[in-house]
Design goal:
Blueprint: H1 5-16, H2 22-29, H3 33-45, E1 65-73, H4 78-90, E2 94-99, E3 106-112, H5 115-126, E4 132-139
Antiparallel strand pairs: 1-3, 1-4, 2-3
Helix pairs in contact: 1-2, 2-3
Length: 153
Protein backbone atom coordinates (compact mmCIF):
# COMPACT_ATOMS: atom_id res chain seq x y z
CA UNK A 1 0.00 0.00 0.00
CA UNK A 2 1.49 3.39 -0.95
CA UNK A 3 2.22 5.92 1.77
CA UNK A 4 0.23 9.13 1.80
CA UNK A 5 1.39 12.47 3.20
CA UNK A 6 0.10 11.64 6.70
CA UNK A 7 1.90 8.28 6.78
CA UNK A 8 5.12 9.99 5.72
CA UNK A 9 4.66 12.71 8.34
CA UNK A 10 4.01 10.12 11.06
CA UNK A 11 7.10 8.15 10.06
CA UNK A 12 9.21 11.31 9.99
CA UNK A 13 8.09 12.23 13.51
CA UNK A 14 8.71 8.71 14.80
CA UNK A 15 12.19 8.70 13.22
CA UNK A 16 12.95 11.78 15.32
CA UNK A 17 11.63 10.21 18.53
CA UNK A 18 10.01 6.78 18.49
CA UNK A 19 8.99 7.17 22.14
CA UNK A 20 6.85 10.20 21.42
CA UNK A 21 3.30 9.69 22.72
CA UNK A 22 0.63 9.18 20.05
CA UNK A 23 -1.12 12.38 21.14
CA UNK A 24 2.04 14.37 20.48
CA UNK A 25 2.59 12.66 17.11
CA UNK A 26 -1.02 13.49 16.25
CA UNK A 27 -0.48 17.13 17.14
CA UNK A 28 2.67 17.31 15.02
CA UNK A 29 0.96 15.81 11.94
CA UNK A 30 -2.35 17.64 12.35
CA UNK A 31 -4.53 14.58 12.91
CA UNK A 32 -6.37 13.31 15.95
CA UNK A 33 -4.84 10.57 18.09
CA UNK A 34 -7.17 7.74 17.01
CA UNK A 35 -6.35 7.85 13.27
CA UNK A 36 -2.65 8.29 14.08
CA UNK A 37 -2.76 5.24 16.32
CA UNK A 38 -4.52 3.22 13.58
CA UNK A 39 -1.98 4.37 10.98
CA UNK A 40 0.97 3.44 13.22
CA UNK A 41 -0.57 0.00 13.82
CA UNK A 42 -1.07 -0.47 10.05
CA UNK A 43 2.52 0.65 9.31
CA UNK A 44 3.75 -1.92 11.84
CA UNK A 45 1.52 -4.70 10.47
CA UNK A 46 2.67 -3.98 6.91
CA UNK A 47 6.30 -4.20 8.00
CA UNK A 48 7.14 -0.60 7.14
CA UNK A 49 7.88 0.01 10.82
CA UNK A 50 9.79 -3.10 11.89
CA UNK A 51 10.58 -2.23 15.50
CA UNK A 52 11.78 0.32 18.00
CA UNK A 53 15.14 0.45 19.68
CA UNK A 54 17.29 2.94 21.54
CA UNK A 55 20.18 4.62 19.73
CA UNK A 56 23.29 3.93 21.78
CA UNK A 57 26.53 5.89 21.88
CA UNK A 58 29.25 3.27 21.37
CA UNK A 59 31.95 5.52 22.87
CA UNK A 60 30.04 5.82 26.15
CA UNK A 61 29.94 2.02 26.21
CA UNK A 62 33.73 1.80 25.82
CA UNK A 63 33.67 0.99 22.11
CA UNK A 64 35.96 3.78 20.89
CA UNK A 65 36.91 2.25 17.55
CA UNK A 66 34.70 1.95 14.51
CA UNK A 67 35.99 -0.14 11.60
CA UNK A 68 34.94 -1.79 8.38
CA UNK A 69 36.42 -5.13 7.46
CA UNK A 70 36.40 -6.36 3.87
CA UNK A 71 36.36 -10.15 3.63
CA UNK A 72 36.87 -12.59 0.78
CA UNK A 73 35.95 -16.25 1.00
CA UNK A 74 38.09 -18.91 -0.63
CA UNK A 75 35.05 -20.67 -2.09
CA UNK A 76 31.42 -19.72 -2.55
CA UNK A 77 29.84 -23.05 -1.67
CA UNK A 78 26.60 -23.05 0.27
CA UNK A 79 28.28 -24.70 3.26
CA UNK A 80 31.11 -22.14 3.29
CA UNK A 81 28.72 -19.20 3.07
CA UNK A 82 26.43 -20.62 5.78
CA UNK A 83 29.39 -21.26 8.10
CA UNK A 84 30.73 -17.72 7.54
CA UNK A 85 27.36 -16.02 7.99
CA UNK A 86 26.64 -17.98 11.19
CA UNK A 87 30.01 -16.96 12.64
CA UNK A 88 29.21 -13.33 11.79
CA UNK A 89 25.77 -13.61 13.43
CA UNK A 90 27.42 -15.02 16.55
CA UNK A 91 29.93 -12.16 16.88
CA UNK A 92 28.73 -9.40 19.25
CA UNK A 93 31.24 -6.88 17.87
CA UNK A 94 29.97 -7.22 14.30
CA UNK A 95 27.12 -4.73 14.12
CA UNK A 96 26.40 -5.11 10.39
CA UNK A 97 27.45 -7.37 7.54
CA UNK A 98 26.67 -6.99 3.85
CA UNK A 99 27.39 -9.24 0.89
CA UNK A 100 28.82 -6.85 -1.72
CA UNK A 101 29.88 -6.62 -5.33
CA UNK A 102 33.42 -5.89 -6.44
CA UNK A 103 36.74 -7.29 -5.28
CA UNK A 104 35.52 -8.43 -1.87
CA UNK A 105 32.64 -10.68 -0.85
CA UNK A 106 31.51 -9.04 2.42
CA UNK A 107 31.66 -5.66 4.11
CA UNK A 108 31.58 -6.11 7.88
CA UNK A 109 31.02 -3.21 10.29
CA UNK A 110 32.85 -3.81 13.57
CA UNK A 111 33.03 -1.87 16.83
CA UNK A 112 35.94 -2.38 19.22
CA UNK A 113 37.45 -0.92 22.36
CA UNK A 114 40.70 0.05 20.65
CA UNK A 115 43.14 -1.03 17.91
CA UNK A 116 44.39 -3.97 19.97
CA UNK A 117 40.81 -5.19 20.44
CA UNK A 118 40.14 -4.82 16.69
CA UNK A 119 43.28 -6.85 16.06
CA UNK A 120 41.97 -9.61 18.34
CA UNK A 121 38.56 -9.58 16.64
CA UNK A 122 40.19 -9.71 13.20
CA UNK A 123 43.02 -12.18 13.84
CA UNK A 124 41.42 -14.47 16.41
CA UNK A 125 37.85 -14.41 15.17
CA UNK A 126 37.24 -13.25 11.61
CA UNK A 127 40.39 -14.73 10.03
CA UNK A 128 39.78 -18.05 11.78
CA UNK A 129 36.34 -18.54 10.27
CA UNK A 130 36.73 -21.59 8.02
CA UNK A 131 36.68 -20.51 4.38
CA UNK A 132 37.88 -16.92 4.91
CA UNK A 133 40.70 -16.12 2.49
CA UNK A 134 41.41 -12.36 2.77
CA UNK A 135 40.66 -9.71 5.34
CA UNK A 136 41.29 -5.97 4.97
CA UNK A 137 40.47 -3.52 7.75
CA UNK A 138 39.55 0.13 7.41
CA UNK A 139 39.52 2.18 10.61
CA UNK A 140 37.11 5.12 10.76
CA UNK A 141 38.94 8.33 11.68
CA UNK A 142 35.91 10.60 11.73
CA UNK A 143 32.24 10.17 10.95
CA UNK A 144 31.00 12.95 8.71
CA UNK A 145 27.43 11.71 8.37
CA UNK A 146 25.67 8.84 10.07
CA UNK A 147 21.97 9.11 9.29
CA UNK A 148 19.54 7.42 11.60
CA UNK A 149 16.58 8.26 9.39
CA UNK A 150 15.53 7.19 5.92
CA UNK A 151 14.43 9.62 3.20
CA UNK A 152 10.66 9.58 2.74
CA UNK A 153 10.21 11.20 -0.68
Amino acid sequence: MPLDEFDRAIIAVLQEDARMPVAQVAERVSLSATPVSRRIKRLEEEGIITGYQPVLDPRRLGLELDAYVLINLDAHSDANIERFEQAILDSPYVIACHAVTGDMDYLVHVVARDVEHLSQITLKSLLRIPGVRDVKSIIVLETVKAPRTLPLD
